[in-house]
Amino acid sequence: MNDAGVIRVLLADDEHLIRGALAALLSLEDDLLVVAEAASGPEALAMARAHRPDVAVLDLQMPGRDGVGVAAALRSELPDCRTMIVTSHGKPGHLKRALEAGARGFVPKTASAQQLAEIIRAVHGGSRYVDPDLAADAISAGDSPLTARETELLDLAADGASVAEIARRAALSPGTVRNYLSAAAAKLHAENRHAAVRRARERGWL
Amino acid sequence: MNDAGVIRVLLADDEHLIRGALAALLSLEDDLLVVAEAASGPEALAMARAHRPDVAVLDLQMPGRDGVGVAAALRSELPDCRTMIVTSHGKPGHLKRALEAGARGFVPKTASAQQLAEIIRAVHGGSRYVDPDLAADAISAGDSPLTARETELLDLAADGASVAEIARRAALSPGTVRNYLSAAAAKLHAENRHAAVRRARERGWL
DNA sequence: CCGTCGCGATGACATTTGTCATCGGGGCTG
DNA sequence: CAGCCCCGATGACAAATGTCATCGCGACGG
Is strand D in 7 Å reach of the CB of B13? Predict the structure, then answer.
């Protein structure tokens, strides 16, 4: 704990340009100190262990381990470290997963740096912050109606593979695969599995 | 023309956080001056007309009109304004389209701010810059083997619509649609149209 | 202990999709 | 002008996919 009023921040984003720029901007705030930067999930974890930041600002999409995964790991490893997620593509399902992983902030990159700084302070203080638009979307979208297997098979179908290929990869009967995909498509009100994949992706259920 | 050695820069990116951070970072360079910012394609054009920047730094993905479209418009409207594209997802086809639109720089966001500043200077000086990795990918990927209609139909197929739906939207016979999609899939060495869509997307041909 | 639900499978059937051959028209080029 | 390629279409056939009914198994809750 740093009682001097300075908030020690870890910045993780695979885009060097954004990470550096963000670091520079946050450094302009007197009470924020960027103590570490990382370009991947694993690196973010290592940096967190080494520098013990007060707040970890994590990009959702990173190589190795995504922001949510890092948040989950940090919660158990460094419970004192607050985590928050920053992302370009704010999908309802992502928000839900992030909150379940213990993230206390969820901010789209369309926010301003001023807002980000404020939210870092709020999160450090123990509050939570979720982008209002995203929250509304998440509530209206609700939970995924898909079962675990349905989701898994839909994911395997995502790259356009044939039923036979999916069945092979999932070690299931082709008929079973068709049944599950059919059920998933019906639940998502999609006309076929490909449209179902799109629907699920849009909502972050995949 | 600004002979005082100061390069007037227009920054366009829909992500407020990144745009602001980038602006702050570039402002640290003595010879760079961010004279305008925009959050969408049309806004970028309007700002360019109003402020006549020396260099326009455009994000590839923006609402309204993407970076390539803005670059094309700027080339005819403000020939003295150099344009460059910055992007997260660098796909071969995008690079090609950007160069055809008159862009003189193509930089992935994994570059550092220092590099970006250098490239802005280079582009302003009349040089071109293309990320080496991306250039290699673009060369190895080559041009799209698809004809105009094939590309168009593949695009219509992208959201998982049925052949009948695609035929309706394209005002074509269903049989014709199947023929084109089949041809496109064959050219892309894909097993079906959905996999073909993925392949084309990966290469930026869509 | 019984109903419900998810998982996994099979069989049958209709529909959709992929593939191929073939046709005609138009435009470009050597 | 002949050859080539793209566009658009049709017909026929094979393969993949979607849909439905039905079965057995195990888990979980009232």
Answer: no
Chain A hits for B193, CB-CB cut-off 8 Å, are: 160
The identity of residue B96, as a single letter, is K
What residues of B are in contact with residue A22 (Cβ under 8 Å)?
17-18, 21
Of all nucleotides, the one whose C1′ comes closest to residue B164's CA is C16
> What's the structural domain count of chain B?
2
For residue A32, give the nearest of A1, A5, A6, A11 by alpha carbon: A6
C10: residue with closest CA to C1': A175
Residue pLDDT tens, chain A, 206 long: 445 679 999 999 999 998 988 898 898 899 999 999 999 999 999 999 999 999 999 999 999 999 999 999 999 999 999 999 999 888 888 998 899 899 999 999 989 888 999 999 999 999 999 999 889 888 887 788 999 999 999 999 999 999 999 999 999 999 999 999 999 999 999 999 999 999 999 998 98
> Domain check: are B135 and B164 in the same one?
no
Q: In angstroms, how far is CA B84 from the centroid of its own chain? A: 9
Q: Which domain, by its residues, includes A183?
A: 148-203
A176 in contact with nucleic chain C (CB within 7 A): yes
Does B30 map to a domain? yes
Distance D17 C1' – A145 CA (angstroms): 23
Q: Can you read off the two tokens belonging to residue A163?
A: 């039923």
User: Is-contact B138 B96, C-beta < 8 A?
Assistant: yes
